[in-house]
Each structure stands twice: as C-alpha cells, then as structure tokens.
Amino acid sequence: xxxxxxxxxxxxxxxxxxxxxxxxxxxxxxxxxxxxxxxxxxxxxxxxxxxxxxxxxxxxxxxxxxxxxxxxxxxxxxxxxxxxxxxxxxxxxxxxxxxxxxxxxxxxxxxxxxxxxxxxxxxxxxxxxxxxxxxxxxxxxxxxxxxxxxxxxxxxxxxxxxxxxxxxxxxxxxxxxxxxxxxxxxxxxxxxxxxxxxxxxxxxxxxxxxxxxxxxxxxxxxxxxxxxxxxxxxxxxxxxxxxxxxxxxxxxxxxxxxxxxxxxxxxxxxxxxxxxxxxxxxxxxxxxxxxxxxxxxxxxxxxxxxxxxxxxxxxxxxxxxxxxxxxxxxxxxxxxxxxxxxxxxxxxxxxxxxxxxxxxxxxxxxxxxxxxxxxxxxxxxxxxxx
Length: 386
Description:
This protein is α/β, with parallel strands linked by helices.
C-alpha cells in the first residue's frame, strides 16, 4: 500500500486517479511515499525516509525546497501547461483593464449610489475621466514563450494586435505552437523597444529577479502598460512606482498583491486568481496524480523540475532506478556493481539535468546485494527496485 499525503485540498479528479486497493490518499496519512501540494509552504518540511516524490499541482515550485529534495533523492514534479488557459484568460482581462480604466470606472460608479434619477446624467458627465485606448493595432511584447506565453501571443494576434515575443529557451515544439504572424525577437531589448503593452511569463530565479528595473524601463516606450501574472519578484516595486508617478508606465496590472502596490493610481491588483478556475484545478490535480503514479509504479519521470525526463520499460526481473549526482564514471560504477553481483543488464537509460542524473536499468537476476552497494556510492541519493 502506497501512502499519498495531500497538503492542500486536491481536486477529486486527481485523488480518484489512485486505485484505493493500492493507495491510501488523504491529508492525515503518515510516512507518505509521495505528497501532493498546491501552495502549502514546504520549505521547512521534514522528509520521512519513505518519501520518494512530491507533485505540485501547478507550475511554480517556490514553496518546495528543490535542492534539499534532490539531496534526499526525492523527485519533484510540477504540472506545466495544466493551468495555462486559465492564466491566459486572466492576462487578456488584465490587458483590457490596463487600457480602458475599467476597474477605476467601476469603483467610481459605486460612488453614485443614492443619486437617484441624476445617475444617468452624472455618468455622462464623469465618464470622460476613464477614457483609454483600444488594444487593436497596438504592439504587445511577451517575455517568456512557454505554455502561457504562447496562448497569450496567439490570442492577442486574434484580437488584432501586433505580437512580438522573446524566450532564450524557446523549444521547437513551443515555436510550432505559435500562430503565423507572431514575431520572435532576437533579444529581449527588441521587445522592450517595440511594446505598447508588456507581459511577463517567466519563472522566478536569480537570473529573472527584477526583470523590470531601471535599466529595462529605460528601453521601453513612455506610457508602456505592464502585466505581471508570473511572479511578483520579477518586478522591482520601488522602481515601478517611481515610473508610474513619472508617467513612464501608464498602468501596471499584477496577480501578486503587496502592501506597497495597494491603492496606487495606475496599479490594478488582482488577488492571485490566475489558476483559480475549477477547470484549472482539475487539470493540475489529474496531471499531478498521473505523474506520481507513473513514477511510483514504473519509475518513469516526466515533468520533473529537479530530475530529467527518463523512461525504460521493464522486460526482465527488476527495474533498478538510481538518482545520483551528474559526475564522471557514476554510470560505469553502477553497472559494474550489478555485473559483479551476477546481474545481467538487458537495457539501460540514463539522463542528466544540471547537477543531477537518473539511471534506469532493466536487470535479470538478484539485485538486492548490488543495490545496497550502489546506495553506498558517494553521490548516490536513492536507489529503487521495481
């Protein structure tokens, strides 16, 4: 019986994916083999020895201690693309909100309560303060062309906008998903220079922190409108507020609220609603459950943030799965130990991702003694036998 701990409420379409004859799933299970999580803070979480995997029902993994997981031999999954349509729709809403002063107009209209028959005339007299431009024919710059960025690009193109995007890690599959007419820039500076509207779709890390800063703002048009539905830390708040006060930035719409941003004219704060749709929650939960089951039962890795995608079919007696440091001679050390123990390796798959690697071996013969020796190798984090 495998124990799956849920640290947040996970949609039933995900938890029901686990066969109750083999899995115990809930928020009170002890010694979990795997954890499903959404936004719960795991940065100080104590890992039990049985824990082999964590699945984040969403894209961001800032609430999970990735480096510590790798050292403990825990595979961390996320669900890229599962909530991309939900976020895309909110970005498009934010695009219109940034342009037409809709939010400010709604708040102003509330102040007319009690004016009775005078309301229509007051509306006609006061509406001019909420004039804003149409988006059709304007240029939207998209920094980050992943699952969400591509959907935003294609939708903006359909709305009559000129679309220019940049992604230094643009994959072939992602590029093929872009509609003809979307321009892929050679540098992010080209995007800054062209954009009337700029939307960020980047992960947050040390390289992307403060993407919007004094230097990048200097390259943008006066009156640029900026959308941030990715991570709050991508924008330097102090610099942004100065840019809004000066008129350099006409509007800032974000899904990440901070005290400094609340109540500032030109800033529209949305309470992190990007993935808050029942469809998105179902998609993320289902995808996370499938990833965990495939890893627990078959050793396959797909959509891990700390380990490479890797799979190997089991045709022999045992499937030996090894998480180890990506260092020279590691694979030869593993295969040598298995061979010395009398095991016959029918096939092997080994992939690496930055500092870590994953090796799968389809082996005929007894491997228990060999696996104990493999686990003792310096740089090996975990050995599983399926």
